[in-house]
Each structure stands twice: as C-alpha cells, then as structure tokens.
TrEMBL record, chain A:
It comes from Cereibacter changlensis JA139. The keyword Disulfide bond applies. This is PQQ-dependent dehydrogenase, methanol/ethanol family. Its cofactor is Ca(2+); pyrroloquinoline quinone. The lineage of its organism: Bacteria, Pseudomonadati, Pseudomonadota, Alphaproteobacteria, Rhodobacterales. Keywords: Calcium, Disulfide bond, Metal-binding, Oxidoreductase, PQQ, Signal. The active site is at D319 (proton acceptor). Pyrroloquinoline quinone binds at E77, R131, T175, T257.
From TrEMBL, chain B:
The keyword DNA-binding does not apply. GO terms for molecular function: electron transfer activity; heme binding. Gene3D superfamilies: Cytochrome c-like domain. Keywords: Signal. Residues 1-29 form the signal peptide. This is C-type cytochrome, methanol metabolism-related. It comes from Cereibacter changlensis JA139. It comes from the Bacteria. InterPro entries: C-typ_cyt_methanol_metab-rel, Cyt_c-like_dom_sf.
Amino acid sequence: MNHMKMGLVTSLLMSAAVPVLANESVLTATADSKQWAIQTGDYANTRYSELAQITKENVGDLQVAWTFSTGVLRGHEGSPLVVDGIMYVHTPYPNNVFALDLANDGKILWRYTPQQNPDVIGVMCCDTVNRGVAYADGMIFLHQADTTVVALDSKTGEVKWSVVNGDPAKGETNTATVMPVKDKLIVGISGGEFGVRGHITAYDIKTGEQAWRAYSTGPDAEMLFDPEKTMELGKPVGADSSLKSWEGDQWQIGGGTTWGWYSYDPDLNLIYYGTGNPSTWNPSQRPGDNKWSMTIMARDADTGVAKWVYQKTPHDEWDFDGVNENILVDQEIDGEMRKLLVNFDRNGFGYTLDRETGELLVAKKYDPAVNWATEVVMDPESDQYGRPQVVAEYSTEQNGEDTNSTGICPAALGSKDQQPAAFSPKTGLFYVPTNHVCMDYEPFRVSYAAGQPYVGATLSMYPAPDSHGGLGNFIAWDATKGEIKWSLPEAFSVWSGALATAGDVVFYGTLEGYLKAVDSETGEELYKFKTPSGVIGNVMTYEVEGKQYIGILSGIGGWAGIGLAAGLTNPNEGLGAVGGYSALSDYTELGGQLTVFAVPD
Amino acid sequence: MTITTSLAAIAMTAAALCVVTGASSLATAQTAAAQGVDVAVASSDGIRSFNAEDIPTYVIAEDGTVDWPTFSGYRRYHAECHVCHGPDGQGSSYAPALKDSVMRLDYYEFLEIIAGGKQDVGAAQNLVMPAFGTNPNVMCYTDDIWTYLRARGTGDLDRGRPAKRADKPAEYAEVEKSCME
C-alpha cells in the first residue's frame, strides 16, 4: 500500500513520468482533474471533478464550444475520455473508436473500426450500446459487442493485443466498459436474458493472458469463494452456497451477468461490482435464493477471491438486475468516519455498506413509489437480516405463473438502471438519475435453447400512479441517513450519468436531449440546452489550455429509448388513458453526436 | 367478431365499402379490406380460428373478450419481441412496428422471417433480427403472435393488455405441452 501511495505522489511530482504499474497510471490520470481517464471518473466511481472554472454563478452562460458526429445512429451510452491532450470517443456497435487531438481542433489522430459479425446485434438485449473505453499504461481498452477485448496504443491506435471473452452464439455479448487495476484488466459479460452464466475475468494488462475468472453461480472453486472466509453480513457463506440455492443444475443457465460498473479501493485492494438477474424472469421455474445473482461482490484484485458478498434481492421475481455502480466514499455515520460503499439498486433501495466488511448500515427506498417490499430487515439477530420483506400482493412468485401481478413499483427498469450517480464531497450528497415507472408482470413457463432469449414473463410499464405523471426524477440523496434531500420531476426516465463538480454544479442529460445544470445544494435549474438527440450518455468534464469543458454524448437508444419511443400506457386507468402519455418519439430522433460546452471568455 | 365471411370475402374497394356500410360494427372490415387483409373467421379447429385461406385469425367478442391464442400472442410478444419492436407492436427506433408489418407481410413470409431472421446491414444503420428457429418459446407461439399483431394492426385490439380473455382450451394446452417439451 505504501509503495503504491508513494508511487502516486512520485509520479504526480514528476508530472509526465512514465508509470510502471497500471494502477499508478490510472491513479495518476484520474487524480488529475483536467483529465477523464476511465469511464467512472475515478476508481471510487464518484463522477466528481475538482474543476471549478464553471460555477453555479456562470454556468448560465454556457455555450457549445464544438461538436463531433460519431457517424453511428444507435444509442450512445458512456462518455469520451481525455488523457494527455487526446480525446477518445467510442460508438455503439460497430464499436468504432476515434482519437481526437484537442490541441489541433479535434483533428482525428487515429480511428479504430473493428469488423464484427453482425449476428451479434440480434442477441443483444435492448440495443447495441457500449459504455466506453478505459485508459491505462499508454493503452486504450475496448470491450466490443462480440466480447473481443482489445488493447490499442493510445497514441497510434495500433492493436497491442486482443482476446475473446465469450461466445455470442450462446448469447454472450458485451455492453460494459472495463476497469484496469494494477497489472490486470477486469472484464464482465452480458446476456442475462439468454441464460448466460455470469462471470468476471482478469486479463494480464500487457499480454491479454487470462489471470483468473470468477463465476457468479456454481461450485465454490469456480466462483473463487472461500467457504470459511468469504463473508455475507458477518458470517462465512459456507460450502456450496450457490449450488444449494438452485434446483438441480439450473445455475448453469442462471444468469448473474456482470454488465454494470466496477469500482476499486486501492487501500483495501478490493474490487466491487454487482451481479445481474437470475434467468429466467419466471421465478416459479427456479426455486431458491438463486445465489449469487443480484449480489454486491467484493473481491481481492490480485486473486479474484471473494472477501464479502451481499445478495440484495434473493430469488428475484421482478428482473431487479443488481449491476448498478458501487460508489466508494468516506463519510461519518453515528459520529464515526466509515469507509462506505453506496449502491442504488434497481429494486428501489439505496444501500450503504461498510466496504471493508460488507456490514449493512442503511437500506432505504430512494423513490417513495417503491412498494414491492416494506423494508430491508436491519436487525442482525433476525433470521431475515438483510432481506427485503416482500409484499404478497406484488410477489409474482406467490401470485404464481400465468397470473398478472399489477401495480408493482418499480418496473423492471428499476428505480434506477445502469446510468451512474455522482457524489460531491463538498455537499456530501449523491446525485441520482432515476426512473419513476411501475409495471404489471406476468410470469409463464419457458424452455431454454442455447443462444436464444430465455425471458419467461410479459410486462407492461406505466408512470408511477398518483405522482407527477412523469417517468423520472433526478434526486439528491443522503446515504448516511437514507433520505432524499430534493427531487426534480422529469417527463422521462433520467437515463444519463450525472457529473458533480467543485463549481457547485451538477450536470445530467435527459431522454428528450437536454443537457441540464443544477445547483448542487438546492437542485435549482441553472442551464439547459437541447442537443441533437436524446441523452443516454454520461456527462464528463476536462480542461485544456486553461479552459474547462463539459462533454456529453447524444444518441437516443438503449432500453429506455426503445421502450419509451412509442410512449407508455396505463392499463389500470382504462381505455381513456391509452395514448395519453407523451411518446419519446415526439421529442427526438436517432443520431450519435458529442457536444462540448464551455463558458465564453 | 362481427364481420361475416361473405362480406369480407367480397373484393370491394374501401371506398365502395364506405358508401355501402355506415354501421360502426363494420369499421374493422373496412380497415382490414382497405389494407388488403382478411381477418374474418371462416373456420376453427378447436384451438384457434382461421380465415377463408386457412390463415390463423383472431376472435374478439362484443364485450372485448379475446380468444386464448391471441391473448397468448400478447404475452409471448411482450416476452420475446418487445425489447426490440417496442410495446404493443408499436415499433421503436431499433426495429419496425410489427402491427404494421403484418398488414403488409404474407403469413408465410412472417413465419420465414421469425424462423430464419433478417439482416439489413449498412454503414449507419444495422438492422439485424436473429433466427428464432430453435427457440420453442417463439416457434410454439408464432400463430398466436401473428393473430395478436393482426388484431393490433386492424385496430380491433387497443394498446396494452387485453382486458378480457377466453380460457385456454384443453386442445390448445395439449398441443402447447408437446411443442414445448
């Protein structure tokens, strides 16, 4: 640890020193607020920048500085990176990457245009999005739709190595970014709706050689679990913890994919991520807790061995896919500074845990509409400790196959999907893009076929009843208490990652295409600008030649872009309401574009 | 259904129909005929209904009760198809509105595309539909999905979950079971 910290200090002092270890290069690059070196801004996933040239006083003067068309129409998630004066812009399938010279008006230094079999498009659930590239050790890392992981020379675009992480013929695809840690690259897998067995894999950052792979389900050895030392809520998980929670060999097609975000604590040497929903969506077909789907995992960065785990939604009945980002912050709880992990799960609960031990500290609803569970039991003495208390009326398992369970909040989209929240150490608040959508859910029997959708439920979604009628909110959250500080109603789900800055401004995008800036204390709207297409990308910031810029990708798509294109209807409100809700297609059209903003001199 | 076989079978132009009929109960026949589709029930095999050319079709009673196979089509569509084609067959920026496609497509073309997939790959737009030929969750229900989408296309079935449905016929359950095994 000391060596790493000293290394960081040394390379900061030497400013442009060539780093030796990957985590030094990433730590150095992410510690420099002028750059944006990995998708999450930093290892802690705070999406916070110290840049303070754009403030809540002058953000109203923001103007478009320059733009760049990506040439691809599909949904654009993630954000560009900026490292050493070069901006790296990625696209959805076909996953092109452009290196733009910021010292030369964005001239294209190199482009990478992979050739992929288009068959992969057909096995990607919910659009061909990609949440972007990562930088480390003079390389740009891309995980393509077809699961090819490629390392590109950051100056030339030359392919240094590539490796194949999965098989699209089995429904294994990728939408996520990757995380470079030390001498390894951490890589996940998508395909939960195709019965894919989830895993994360560490590849040697220099060669692409596989170092370890940890499955989400199955035998302890394949999950890299130590039955005695891997803990859940203070107790060892014991032998065969996953196998015992499934019927027969269902764990082999049981999901628990890993398409979300990754975080890393260099002091604890732990990486954190969430696992996705169990397959199928029909809970009656897979009795048991279905471990370790829907789980926050803390693993040793060198060996992959799980230190602690916490299953948020045992035996999922609603597709509350548990992959959302885990934000690492140090805050005071009950007068004591704690190393915290904060997670806004799809299931509508905002969790605060001790990231060293996995102790559960707070679990509160971050949308008042959430109704599928009354609470998460916080009493360590209870046999229900850590478990959500499911409301029978909204239990698709208890209501059974072929029964339509109505009025469940949130919808399968979750109170929040992958769109990442931001944290400001200045306010101590989290800024969370959310969905405000409920659903009817009817599970039914399905049969598994390799490489084919394995869904098993039909659902209809509609705006949360008895509320503002919109499909989203942008909220400020106190994770030490589990309280909403303020909430801004939005017409559509907020499907854009937020950015918090030392200028006391918080930025986010909307599905109609607005970039919005709000006051980090009050939520007051300070600026908005309508970009060429709907925003499902994440806001980032950087500085070049003494000037701060804000960058955002537009390009409507993703699950929200598809599901909301035609608008939602509420079957519970009768025929009169059909078509009564505004359709996203009335506001925006396809088109990938980067828009960069600055305050004029 | 209120359309009679004889009426729907008459190859009339929509304009002629408009002149001849003023009854609102015949609006469907006008729409369907105008779009060149025949959704009128000519026969039934105890599992589902068919038009005069033995193409599966839907039955919606006066009180809105939807026949079981068409309801099943609603369910299967919203499990297998909607993530790309959008809710209620409405389409999305990712894939076309199937409620409209089935008014153009031949029933056999429809089956062929589901089983074999379809690709339209270009520089800016890549439309790729996978082949579902090996997927029992789709292939056992293609007729159900067809009649559901036809009902959406003619406008006889509104958006959302059908309010009322007929029970699953025993014959249907038997065929379904053998298909899914």
